[in-house]
Predict the 3D structure of the following.
Amino acid sequence: MALRKILTDEDPGLHKKCRPITAFNERLFQLLDDMQETLANADGVGLAAPQVGVLRRAVLVLETNVPEGEEPYVIELINPEIIETEGEQEGAEGCLSVPGEFGVVKRPAKVTVRAQDRNGNFFEVTGEGLTARCFCHETDHLEGIVFTEKCERMLTEEEIQALGGEHGGENDGEETD
Ligand code: ZN
């Protein structure tokens, strides 16, 4: 495994639509393993392949809604499609590719995704709260959309400070990828 460089918003690759993954091989495993390491190193809750310069439809989302005493775990989503949404949530969202900035984004409260695992097997997974927000944020990345393009407004410096260590984004695991 190796750490990959996380690209920032200015990189044109983050604004391009990504192509489906068709080969479930060693090269994909390497990408996913590297992304896992990169995500853990950045202490984030989600990461999309284009953020590490690969314009393919693969994302990681950290499932943080786990029973007390259990560790959050990473869900690998290859070629993910959002197939069902329910409700609405509004909150601060951040992104590892937009360091230090946060914005208010409306997302569904509950999201079901259909995707493939690293071996190509299809599965469905439902997430709520932060996990639902991450599913949306990460699949947006695959369309070349960064959250700053759909947020209602960016938070001010004071508001970010008020969030303290509790909220944030990909950066601290509280609000999104
Ligand atoms: Zn992001």
